[in-house]
What does this fold into?
Amino acid sequence: MVTRQFCAGSGGSRRLELLPLLPQLLTGLRLASAPLVWWLVTRLELQAAFACLGFAMVSDAADGSLVRRFGTPSRAGAYFDATADFAVIAAAFSAFAYLDIYPVWLVALIALAFLVFLLSSCLTSTIYDPVGRYIGGILFVAIAATLLLQDLLLQFVILSAATASLTITLGARAAYTLATRRQILIGARYPKTSL
It folds into this structure.
């Protein structure tokens, strides 16, 4: 909607109207950076890939704060954010697998963890996953370390840590979903009665 004030040349109010869209813009740019990360890593342009990853990490940290600041959180926005994170992480680890740095099954485990997140969040009332949030951070740091330090021992440690943390997030998400579903079923079977 075009307001008289905007038509008169006052861009200040229009900028204020667009500010709540900034988190989605950052998330969209992060999602768009995923193929670039893959391409840069497979071309061994590691410094450029690190810069692109740095943007992804900063935008991931910033978009959530901005959403809360502008009071515009939504379920769709949360899915969009998680999808952008997954895309960057999967792109980087796919590139590493392409270069034989990490095994392909690690990429499959990352995809499985995201799939479980999507399916389980559809079954629960909330999609917030504190364990998954930390796992995303761990995987972002693992990507950065792999880009900066090409060391076989470090790569083994990263592979072990990534495998363990993904296994933990899969178990935690499954347990949370089962507990939530159980509470819903018990509540439906034994509704509260007021006297």
Q: What stands out?
A: The mean pLDDT is 81. Residues 180 and 186 are 10 Å apart (CA to CA). The two ends are 51 Å apart (CA to CA). Residues 152-189 form the longest helix (38 residues).
